[in-house]
Specification:
The complex is a heterodimer of chains A (304) and B (256).
Chain A lengths: L6 E3 L2 E3 L3 E3 L8 H4 L9 E3 L16 E4 L2 E4 L8 H8 L9 E6 L4 H11 L6 E5 L10 H4 L2 H14 L4 E4 L7 H10 L4 E4 L3 E3 L2 E2 L4 E2 L6 E4 L4 H12 L6 E4 L5 H10 L3 E4 L2 H4 L3 H15 L16
Parallel strand pairs in A: 3-4, 3-16, 4-7, 7-8, 8-9, 9-10, 10-15, 15-16
Antiparallel strand pairs in A: 1-2, 5-6, 6-14, 11-14, 12-13
Helix pairs in contact in A: 3-5, 5-6, 7-8, 8-10
Chain B lengths: L3 E14 L2 E7 L1 H6 L5 E4 L8 E9 L4 E7 L3 H7 L6 E8 L12 E6 L4 H8 L5 E7 L8 H6 L3 E6 L6 E2 L2 H11 L4 E5 L2 H13 L4 E4 L15 E6 L2 E6 L6 E3 L6
Parallel strand pairs in B: 7-8, 7-11, 8-9, 9-10, 11-12
Antiparallel strand pairs in B: 1-2, 1-6, 2-5, 3-4, 3-6, 4-5, 12-15, 13-14
The chains are: A alpha/beta (304), B alpha/beta (256).
Amino acid sequence: MKPSMKVTIAGVELKNPVITASGCCGYGREYDRLYPMEKLGGISLKGMTLEERQGNPPCRIAETPSGMLNSVGLQNPGVEAFLRDELPNLTGRDVVKIANVAGSSIEDYCAIAERLDGSAVDMLEVNISCPNVKHGGASFGADCTMASQVVSEMRRRTKKPLMVKLTPNVTDIVSIARAVEDAGADAVSLINTVLAMRIDIKTRRPVLHNNVGGLSGPAVFPIAVRMVWQVANAVKVPVIGMGGIEKWQDAIEMMMAGAQAIQIGAALFYDPYTPLRVLEGMERWMEQNGVSDINEIVGAVRPW
Amino acid sequence: MAYLQGSFPLLARCELAPGVFSFTISCPEIAAQAQAGQFVHVRVEGFTLRRPISICSFDRAAGTVRIVFEVRGRGTERLSHCKTGEMLDLLGPLGNGFSAVKPGEKLIVVGGGIGVPPMLQAAKAAGADATAIIGFRTAGAVILKEEFEALGCDTRLATDDGSAGYHGFVTGLLKQRLAEGAAALICACGPMPMLKGVVALADEYGIPSEVSLEERMGCGIGACLVCACKTVKDGREIYSHVCKDGPVFNGNEVVF
């Protein structure tokens, strides 16, 4: 019998635990041309703000050993254009649609939450962790009080499940996770990118026009595993793990650390089929290891 | 726009000039759909990001695509060591290509340095109706000149140092060519200052222009939004994306 890949996050059922990460798969159109999005458990859509944002000037990307930096700066058409031009393409399709929501004020987050409340979006991912914008973003995610305020205010404005995306650029991610859980978060996702920098030694200029950006890719995977493990041990809500996952072994490892689902981001750029390879590998591993339900391995790590 | 990803064998390779390599790859599926000006996104073993490389030419009957690239860093250096028979992981064909001119209409293609290769396929259909203006730093860096001539193009060469052909930039040759007569379209690829000059001349003569841009790229298909370039749309400056909205843009859309 085929192993069960089904997972339930905050009351939303995903046919499998593999989700594409926000900012890496647009609004689902581009990778849809290579394989149907229905193969995925979910899609976390490109971060959206209340109004359109043009993002940061180029250069917005830099390669690093086993990873990359980006500083897109939340370029997006705004929530109205999302609802008008993008969401209809996904409505009615058998894939969990996660709207990633960002703002520069608590009012922004709330206005977007209200606007999405009656939409076909299944879940909101509260982005309090974008390192590439001047106002809002990670400044909300680095402070327990601010993080808690954003979540509790949004909680009152929407019935959609709230998954809060956490930044690793803090001293103690566990205290932030606890704060958003107490404020009413239904799940947490982590980690967003790690704040980083590259300098071109010829020009003596930072490679990124924003000077600094977010590191992602396999380089951050062990950091992500550690943080997911710490957070999963500290909160009762589901944890969605991400950061550098590129192989099925990484996905299993992340779930053993305590993640109930995983997101795949940067690996899409070098291998667009990563989510499908990861899923196939996980199923094969489960069959070989007598694991009939993927939920059995969540938090299955046996710490020393 | 359709694209696919797969592994394809390298059929032939050669070094056209120091550090400039030509790879002919057997990939019938990509050749079947490719348009002049499009690119392929090439995976390089050991590197996180693919390298976007413009298609120099394709042969649908033979099922081949040819790319010509310059070694610019460690990734392209590693790529240049690929041997005949090795498999190359390509995603493509990507982006929007150049427009074609109607039979009998005059086309001018302008290429600077490593911007010359994509102009070869663009000039192909026009043959003797195309003027190819190609510029390089110096005589030793000249590539593809004989191939433009073999297509029957009126081929004009410029070098920055005057060691071969016209002494100066391609814009000098373009000015001469435009003084001789009009054309239906000017297509160009090369450094931004060159493209700016080409578009200004095209505007002066009232000829439509299309330019191919370059920017550091992530996904290559419009999902990650990193390859931003400033363009004008409906009178408003916006960041478009080279991979999906380009790499070929209408010359007047680009904010130089």
